[in-house]
Structures are given as structure tokens and as C-alpha cells.
């Protein structure tokens, strides 16, 4: 399958596929003219790569995880690494939740300022 078809089926840009290849996440064979050719399984692999990125993993971590997904074997230290990533993501979620609560308070006060903040009418 050519790069444009994989991009269309996976819902990503051609540029994203090139990036995945550069990062060692998506192998491609090259034809005589240098064109990339992917197996039909590339579409599913791109979906998994996107899920892992959406989970907050860096490309280095995704590169470590992918072989385990396809082989079923987990190298030493991978589970601990993923657990650490989960903690990092949970901390970020807590930070974002706090920021949202602060923003909600600002919005509420802007819509209906407390009486001590209102200007007296002249």
C-alpha cells in the first residue's frame, strides 16, 4: 500500500506517516523509485501509534511499547516505565482540573461579581 492510501485510511497526514517512519515506529519498504510501500497492517499500527501518543507517551516510549504489543512479550522495565508514565499523566490531569476550577471561578465572578467588587452607581 502506498503512503497516500495509508494516510487516507488511517486518517492522518502523509507528513505524520513520514514522522512515524523517521522515529522507527512504522517500517516501510522502498520501491525501485524510492516510493514507500506499507503492508495492509500499517493502518491498524498507525491507529495504535496515535492512541499511544494520545495517552501522552513520547515517541521513544511508543517505540518501546510497540514490539510488546505485537509479540506479547514484555521486556524488563517496560511495565515500570508505563506505570511512571501513568503517574505523570495523572499528575497532569490533576493540574488541569485545578486550572479548570480556577477558570470556572473567574467566569462565574465575571458574570455575577460579588457585591463588594461592584462599582457604586453614580
UniProtKB/TrEMBL annotation:
CDD domains: HTH_MerR-like_sg3
One Pfam family of this chain: MerR_1
SMART domains: HTH_MERR
Gene3D superfamilies per UniProt: 1.10.1660.10
Classification via InterPro entries: DNA-bd_dom_put_sf, MerR-type_HTH_dom, MerR_fam
PROSITE patterns named in the record: HTH_MERR_1, HTH_MERR_2
Keywords for this protein: DNA-binding
HTH merR-type domain: residues covered: 1-68
GO MF terms held by the record: DNA binding; DNA-binding transcription factor activity
Domain of life of the organism encoding this protein: Bacteria
Full protein name: MerR family transcriptional regulator
